[in-house]
Every structure is written in structure tokens, then in C-alpha cells.
Amino acid sequence: MAERKMVQPMSKFERFFIERLSRASLGSKIANTNSKLSLGGSSKDVRLQPLDGYDSEQFPRDIQSAGLEIIKIVKPYEPGSTSSQLDTYIVRDTDGTEYPVTLGKGKGFGVRDESMILDSISNQIQDILSTEGKEFATIKINKKKYKVNGIETTIGTPKSDFHLTLNGDPVVFISHKKGTTAKHFQQYGGTSLKSGELIYNHPEVKSFVKKIAKLFPNGIPAGASIYRPIKDSNLKMLSIYGPDYGKPFGYNNVTLLLQGNVKLNKVGNNTYEFEASHISYNGEAPEGEYDAVLYGRYNPSRGGNHGIKALRTSIMPLAKLSGNTQKI
User: Fold this and answer.
1) Positive/negative CA dihedral, 324, 286, 111, 260
2) Domains of the chain, residue spans
3) What is the pLDDT of residues 3-40, one digit of tens each?
4) Dihedrals φ, ψ of 164, to 5°?
5) Distance CA 177, CA 184 (A)
């Protein structure tokens, strides 16, 4: 992969919302174009929140209906973006003043998304039990077979999001990611102490952080992002499958990672396999656009990782890097 060069970040929106409209006024102006839009809260942009039933493809038209011109749409992590997960619409009013506008994901988005996947798998398992007339279904995962008859949400914030159960006992641990491509991932995991001592104290993480501190002694500047390929496959495994990788499967050493919608396909007598947009079995190293890299970026609200001002670090798929991310 070609080395990425640092470019100067876009200038900030000078006199942001002072000379023309307040953030609330501009947001209300857009929200008033559609009854299924509401004013959200953000210190960095004009944030709108969708209500139930809102079609996100309508958002550009709602912006234009408010008398605003869309100059461009900036993807997450690109210069000019105000969000790590949302597209930023750079809009201009009739006076020529530019503002960043974003459409949020709605109240409880992440919970709803996980709930939909959980319900889908649960319903499929119950349908299988009914169809097969058995007390359990056999799920084949990377050549190994597991007897299951239920699924539960994993409580807390371990690597596992769901776990398949047999009579209430956990037997298969699943990390689930939204979307259909590596670009839709938010990250594999962080590098702070919360991610586990083996990740936080890993020599490659320490070296990466040391280099960032040397490059940016006063803290990472606005708009900057950097990355470094990971050499140690074990560091990738710890981030993808959990800080207990190498131990028996459990809440922090998942059996597999699934992305997107999940389907159970019959492959034999009362035997089923998972189908998803992307599947990674425990022990498999990511390849191509899913390959894991160390990443750091400017994030004043959630930054400060490893003692560096405004630095947010993570391990994420290669595909998430923008063309302006600097390799160090």
C-alpha cells in the first residue's frame, strides 16, 4: 500500500454560528421542513436527529428545502469532518456563510441495531427447533459443532456482544459489527488500559504512541490522523477476538466475529452454518481491507489517550483510513 502523506487540515469554521445564525436556529430551520426531524445536540456542528420512520435519503432534500446549498459531503475521518461516524454536510446560506450539518442515528440506534440482530438469530433458532423437532440445533463453526437452543445479549462491555446458549449455558461467543464492508466498522478495539494490559503495554502500541508524542509534542493538531501497520499477529488477535485471546472461548475471547445481517443455513442433518457479510473465526488473521492497523486521530472530546492531548487511538481495518492519513 502506498505511503500516505500528511496534508494541512481544513481551516476551522471561523466565527462559527456567531455572525449569522445560532446553531439552534439553523437546526430548527432544517427540522421544520420535516415532522420526522428533531434538533439534536452537538458542540461541533448542527446536529439533526431522525425520529421513527424518517428516510435518511430525504435529508439532503430537507437541507435544500430550508434554503441552504449543499457544497459537499465529507466522510468520517476526512478533513472537514465533525464526526467519526456521520457524514458531514457542508452547507451555505444565502449570505454565503458556511456551516457543518450532520444527521444523527436517532435515539437508541446502537441498541436497536443489536436488538434486531439478536431477535433475528433467536427467531431463526426457534424456527429450526420447530422444523427439526429437536431440543437443540447443531451450529457448525470453523469445522467444530456446537449444540444450541437459545441466544442472549452479553451483559457489560466485553468483546462478546451475544452468546449462543444450550439450556441457558453460554457455548458460543459472538462479536458483531454493523455494515457490509470493512469501511463500515467503527474499530476492532481501543488501545487504552480498558482494552486490556496486553494491548496497552504491547511494544508496538508503545512505539506508536512514542512516535506520535515526538511528532506532536503539544498534542495532536486538529484534522490530523496517523497510522502504522501491525507486525505482531497476536496484537491483531487480541484486538479482534478479545484480551483473553489464547485462553478458552469466553466473553473476552470470542468464537467468531460476524458483520451485518446474519443467516443460519442448513448444511446437513439438523446442522447449520452462519452466513454474514463478513465472518472471521477465532485465530484467523484479517487480510486485505480488513487488515488491522494502529490508528490515531484528533478527537478533543474523547481524546487524551496515552497522555497525549486530543489523541484518540484504536486498532481498526485498513479500509477505514482516509487518503490524508499519515503513515508513521
Assistant:
1) positive
2) 23-103, 109-180+241-288, 186-236+289-327
3) 444 433 333 443 444 444 567 788 889 999 999 998 87
4) -75, 145
5) 8
The pair phi, psi for residue 123, each rounded to 5°, is -65, -40
What residue type is assigned to position 52 of the chain? Answer: D
With CA atoms as reference, report the closest residue to 90 among 39, 57, 44.
Answer: 44
Of 184 and 115, the structure prediction assigns the larger pLDDT to 184
DSSP string, 43-92: SSSEEEEEPTT--GGGHHHHHHHTT-EEEEEEPTTSTT-S-SSS-EEEEE
C-alpha cell belonging to residue 212: 506520535
- CA–CA gap between residue 283 and residue 216 (Å, rounded): 35
Where does the chain show beta strands of DSSP type E? 37-39, 46-50, 69-74, 88-92, 98-103, 137-141, 144-148, 150-153, 162-166, 169-177, 189-190, 225-229, 256-259, 263-268, 271-275, 278-281, 292-298, 311-317, 326-327
Q: What stretches of 225-316 show up as alpha helix (H) in DSSP?
A: 233-241
Which amino acid is it at 23? R
Residue 225: count of CB within 10 angstroms of its CB: 23
The pLDDT confidence band at residue 262, using thresholds 50, 70 and 90, is: very high
Q: Is the pLDDT of residue 185 over 60?
A: yes
Judge whether 199 and 189 are in contact, CB under 8 Å. Answer: yes
Average pLDDT over residues 214-229: 92
Number of helices followed by number of strands (H, E) in the chain: 6, 19
Note the pLDDT tens digit of each residue in 84-133. Answer: 667 899 999 888 888 899 998 765 444 456 778 888 999 999 999 999 99
With beta carbons less than 8 A apart as the criterion, state whether 281 and 273 touch. no
